[in-house]
Design goal:
The chain is mainly α. It folds into two domains: 53 residues; 82 residues, no CATH class. It is built from four helices and no strands. The relative contact order is 0.09.
Length: 141
């Protein structure tokens, strides 16, 4: 097993992952995607599994991890809803420079609220009614 890596490695890993995801579409994009799926992503997962972060990076990672499934589940329907609403109710705002950051911020806050006030309490309630027992402090924060 690799020795625990510090915050510097976590930040470098995040930058590397962003650079993979931020490539421009084009004729070579399919090859880049295949290389990413079979080479880069497994490396990111392997390195990420041994990274131990501390301080603010740890706090951000815990919150992001708790929200990640919610973001995955609700982002596409929310994009469709926001697209339809802005086309109909505010056409001058549709696809404007400000609409992207506002949408992302709203989605992140909404997913955090869903996790905090719906998902975690529901998981706790369901867990308490099964044969497996879990304490409230064992759930992700």
């Amino acid at each position: 097993m690799l020795a625990p890596l510090g915050n510097t490695w976590a930040i470098l890993l995040a930058i590397a992952l962003f650079s993979v995801l931020a490539t421009e579409p084009g004729s070579a994009r399919i090859y880049w995607d295949i290389i990413s799926i079979f080479l880069f992503f497994p490396i990111f997962v392997a390195v990420g599994s041994v990274v131990q972060v501390r301080g603010r990076v740890e706090q951000v990672s815990l919150v992001a991890g708790a929200m990640s499934y919610g973001l995955y589940v609700v982002h596409l329907p929310t994009v469709g809803l926001a697209d339809a609403l802005t086309r109909r109710m505010a056409p001058m705002f549709h696809l404007s420079v400000a609409s992207g950051p506002i949408f992302v911020a709203s989605l992140v806050v909404g997913c955090w609220l869903l996790d905090r006030y719906y998902d975690r309490p529901l998981r706790l309630w369901l867990t308490q009614r099964t044969r497996f027992s879990v304490r409230r402090d064992q759930l992700a924060t």
